[in-house]
Fold this sequence. Notes:
The chain is mostly helical. The chain has a single domain (1-152), classed as Orthogonal Bundle (Transferase(Phosphotransferase), domain 1), CATH 1.10.510.10. It contains six helices and no strands. Helix 5 packs antiparallel against helix 6 (103-110). The longest helix is centred in the N-terminal third of the chain and has 17 residues, at 20-36. The chain is globular and about 40 Å long.
Amino acid sequence: MTGTIGYMAPECHRKGKASKESDVYSFGVVALEMACGRRSIEPKYDENEASLVAWVWEAYENQRLFDLVDKKLSKDFDFKEMECLLIVGLWCAHPIDTVRPSIKQAMQVLNFDTALPNLLSKITIPMYDIPNIPILKTREAYSSHLSITVPR
């Protein structure tokens, strides 16, 4: 699996493959980048602001989405269009893949052919199973039941 951190949907780490839903997630991240004027991952920010998607979800939950709009725009934008871009970006970047729209549905909303979706005001981030991998100390022995035959 290849991909860029910050654009890969959460389930890609678990499933190990991309899907239509993970492509929609990436589209949502790009939409949020355009609206906010920053990259998907910003290590220079505090931990709660480093992930663009998490940062925008938090602002949405606190009803302060417009505080995140790119400052370079100097509030010189159509508020209805910006709200649409931010909401569709969040909808597409929803942490649960089955809640994400199809790209067709997202485009219909962006074109104002369909109403904005009703997103929950509080998002629950799913927890994915992470395999229990022992952390080895440098001098600790490790044995495996896997054997590899190397031809000479």
